[in-house]
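Problem 12. The chain below contains 143 residues. Write out its predicted structure in token notation.
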Amino acid sequence: MKKYLLILCGLCVPFVCNAQMTDTMGALAIDGMLNSEAYRGVRQMQNALGKANFQQDLSELITETQIASLNGYFDKSNIRFNGLKGIDWDVVSVATGQYYIELKNLDYSSCFTVKNSQWGTHHIEVNDGGDCVENENNVKLFF
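Solution.
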């Protein structure tokens, strides 16, 4: 009788292991799906943070240029701005008390943000009178 029980237990062990392996594989698959969703969420948060940092840097640049032009004339040497990483920018005096901030090589999202936000400008010119395109947008904010 012991032989029969031992043989029966020996035959059942692979089925138990197979069930545990299937359960483990299912748990890993679900965990992988959850991780891919988490990574997608992290990527979205990083994009939102980048957009917020861009807006903050641009606001800081605008504030510094307004302070530099308080005397009625614009003095570019008074601007000590180090933000907007990866974006070429320049401040150009047009006339007494008038200037514009030029942002070069903006992506579509940044161009759209600059174009549709209130920055206290007289007007905003995108791509010399055009509209935002996929890459390499040039935007001028006139003050």
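Discussion. The longest helix spans residues 2-68. Students who got a different answer should revisit the alignment rule from Section 12.3.
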